[in-house]
TrEMBL record:
Transmembrane segments: 35-60, 80-103
The UniProt record lists the keyword Membrane: yes
InterPro entries: CD225/Dispanin, CD225/Dispanin_fam
Protein name: Transmembrane protein 233
Record's keyword terms, sorted: Membrane, Transmembrane, Transmembrane helix
Family as reported in the entry's similarity comment: Belongs to the CD225/Dispanin family.
An example Gene Ontology CC term for this record: membrane
Cellular localization per UniProt: Membrane
Major place of residence: membrane
A Pfam match: CD225
Domain of life (superkingdom): Eukaryota
Amino acid sequence: MPPSENSYTKAPLRGSSDRLENLGELRGTPPLRNYLCLTMFTCFCPAWPVNIVALVFSVLSQNSYNEEDYEGSKRLGKKALHLGIASLVISLVIIAVYTVYFVTLTTVRAHQGGILRSSLNIPRLSWENLDR
């Protein structure tokens, strides 16, 4: 059936040409790299002063990006990344030192009788004690 003059035809979407022009502008913007997930993860690590500063730099990077200051955003994002990595390394060192210290402390006390059964007055379990 041939189309008539009264038949309904779809009008082009409004703003579709604007979207194509904006696509060209978007290609010129660099991607956002504020490392917010990394810095939020490091807030659970025991190196608190460093990871709080990393989180602040990450949020500042986001704000710079929203204000279209891409160079400032990139610079602040790199600082957030470096501080986040430093926070992870410091946290791993703290955890390792803490673990080594308390494992050796527990081992030394165990050999000296500090935390043995006799010092805690815990009777020795044997089959004879279970029959009673």
